[in-house]
Write a structure and sequence with these properties.
Layout (H helix, E strand, L loop, with lengths): L4 E16 L3 E8 L3 E7 L18 E9 L2 E11 L8 H17 L6 H15 L5 H15 L5 E5 L9 E4 L4 E4 H9 L3 H4 L5 E4 L1 H12 L12 H19 L4 H9 L2
Parallel strand pairs: 3-5, 6-8
Antiparallel strand pairs: 1-2, 1-4, 2-3, 4-5, 7-8, 7-9
The chain binds zinc ion (ZN).
Zinc ion binds next to helix 4.
Length: about 260
């Protein structure tokens, strides 16, 4: 007996597209209602197809899906936002691709309104160039890390409780170490654990304040802070190392973004 066909309307963002044969597409759709779904879009590559526009990467819209036996296909699609400016600069396109690759890797079929909102807000900020790209990148990386359950604690040194001075973020532990405690650890021959180049990130007071801001700001205010350019680069380094270490993944799109960013 065939499984019954259920239909459901969702709002979703196309995070990746794979061509299938001559006519069809398989899309990865991030929805609030059903999390990240793989959806078959039959005929979507044909010029006259009514889903063609809405089933391209970075497109957001309303989709009527048919589900049968756990497989989804597109019945109807109404495009609401194309983020077309993402395609007008190679650096913007590269960062947007990285955002989508992170979503593709970490997404699940759990409903997640926050994840969709973060992703849409990030693509919007990139497309309208609301902030420098490393600023937007850092906010996205830290917020998605937090949504996945990884939150650095940047309030005080994890060893002595110092709240002022020079700190590094220990990437695997997600905690702060002050200069004195680093020197103490090194003196006790524990430097192998704490001195690995990829294991720590330098944090200035401004970067620590930015991290606290990003973690605690309401979703519609996450990008609204200012940081000097050199500190933005420190922040972006720290958030990237933190996210990629904790989800244990290197992204090809991130390597490409780093090649094309000024
Ligand atoms: Zn300390």
């Amino acid at each position: 007996m065939k499984a019954p066909v259920n239909t459901e309307e969702v709002r979703g963002l196309v995070v990746s597209v794979t061509d299938v044969g001559e006519r069809d597409r398989l899309i990865s759709l991030l929805t609030a209602e059903r999390g990240l779904l793989t959806v078959y879009a039959g005929g979507a590559r044909q010029l006259k197809n009514r889903y063609m526009a809405a089933t391209q990467q970075f497109c957001y819209g309303k989709f009527l899906l048919a589900e049968q036996g756990g497989r989804y296909s597109v019945r109807e699609a109404a495009l609401e936002e194309t983020f077309y400016e993402l395609r007008t600069g190679i650096d913007r396109a590269a960062l947007a691709s990285y955002v989508c690759e992170v979503i593709s890797f970490t997404g699940t079929e759990q409903p997640d309104t926050e994840l969709l909102r973060l992703t849409l807000n990030t693509l919007y900020a990139i497309s309208r160039a609301l902030h420098p790209l490393p600023h937007i990148k850092a906010v996205f990386e830290l917020r998605i890390a937090a949504l996945l359950g990884f939150m650095p604690d940047v309030d005080a040194c994890a060893y002595c409780g110092a709240t002022e001075g020079e700190f590094v973020l220990h990437i695997p532990e997600g905690h702060l170490i002050c200069r004195d405690c680093r020197e103490g650890l090194a003196a006790r021959a524990e430097q192998a654990e704490y001195e690995g180049a990829a294991q720590v990130a330098l944090l200035t007071d401004g970067v620590r304040a930015a991290i606290r801001y990003i973690l605690h700001a309401s979703p519609d205010r996450i990008f609204s802070f200012r940081l000097e350019e050199d500190e933005t680069h420190l922040l972006s380094y720290a958030t990237e190392e933190f996210l990629c270490w904790h989800i244990d993944r290197k992204f090809a799109s991130l390597a490409f973004y780093k090649q094309v960013i000024d």
